[in-house]
């Protein structure tokens, strides 16, 4: 399967009990297109940092997931990728009380050996929580 086909399969089989970071955090794939992916996660008390808000690692994981999957959606069969670099900027904290966060990622450039993508996380009111860029190594 191509990357796009794999991601569409994942989205269709969301309820399957396959171990993954998505399952661990409760991330759901909501949109998959060539070069663009969206996912959501609902905040919970287990996401707490010492200040009592969502840990930045949860936001970074959502960003890494949507951007990496945006790259993956452009790849042919038998080709994978790995993250080389991830740059995250946090804009605001998020409460732990069941707020929905939406991550959106899209490709900027996909070459033979590397790809670049951008992403952002919005809260349920459309306010920016964080944004990021990534560089991925493409593995044939």
TrEMBL record:
Keywords: Hydrolase. InterPro entries: ACOT13, HotDog_dom_sf, PAAI_dom, Thioestr_dom. Coiled coil: none annotated. GO terms for molecular function: fatty acyl-CoA hydrolase activity. Residues 51-129 form the Thioesterase domain. It comes from the Bacteria. Pfam families: 4HBT. PANTHER family: ACYL-COENZYME A THIOESTERASE 13, THIOESTERASE SUPERFAMILY MEMBER-RELATED. NCBIfam families: unchar_dom_1 (TIGR00369). Belongs to the thioesterase PaaI family. This is Thioesterase. It comes from Brachybacterium endophyticum. The lineage of its organism: Bacteria, Bacillati, Actinomycetota, Actinomycetes, Micrococcales.
